[in-house]
Amino acid sequence: MAIGERTRLPKAHEQGIRFFRFSEAALQCGANTHIIEGVPVLIYDPAKTVADCFKYRNKIGLDVAMEALRDCWRQRKATMDELWQAAKVCRVSRIMRPYMESLV
């Protein structure tokens, strides 16, 4: 779960949920508000999700990040411009560049 840099961690959180601190720019980039059971929830668009996969590639695995990028591109869920913008905000543009170039 993404939280702000200065946001306090919830006291009672279920096991299995990990919290990651994001800067304000990274927290707001690609976030869309959806109403789920009357509660507003921020859900990230596919481009931001792929960039986050590359950002946390050491925790989830590089193969997962590469597969997310391939699936996002094949299913036309995001354009290269959207992916590049999200990569810049998440500070993984240098890491994602070779993988993005291999898709084109």
Q: How large is the share of residues in beta strands?
A: 15-25%
Helix content: 40-55%
Cα(first) to Cα(last) distance is: 32 Å
Q: Tell me the count of domains.
A: 1
Inertia-based shape: globular
How many beta-strand runs?
Answer: 4
User: What ranges have pLDDT less than 50 throughout 5 or more consecutive residues?
Assistant: none
**Average pLDDT, all residues:** 91
Which sequence of strands runs across the widest sheet? 1-2
Reported for the largest beta sheet, the result is: 2 strands, parallel
Instruction: Give helix and strand order, one letter per element, not per position.
Output: EEHEEHHHHH
Gyration radius (Cα, Å) is 14 Å
Tally of individual helices: 6
The computed structural class is alpha+beta
What can you see in these coordinates?
The chain has 104 residues and is of the alpha+beta class. It has one domain. It has helices spanning 24-28, 46-55, 57-60, 62-74, 80-89, 93-103, and strands spanning 2-4, 20-22, 31-36, 39-44. A hairpin with a 2-residue loop joins strand 3 (31-36) and strand 4 (39-44).
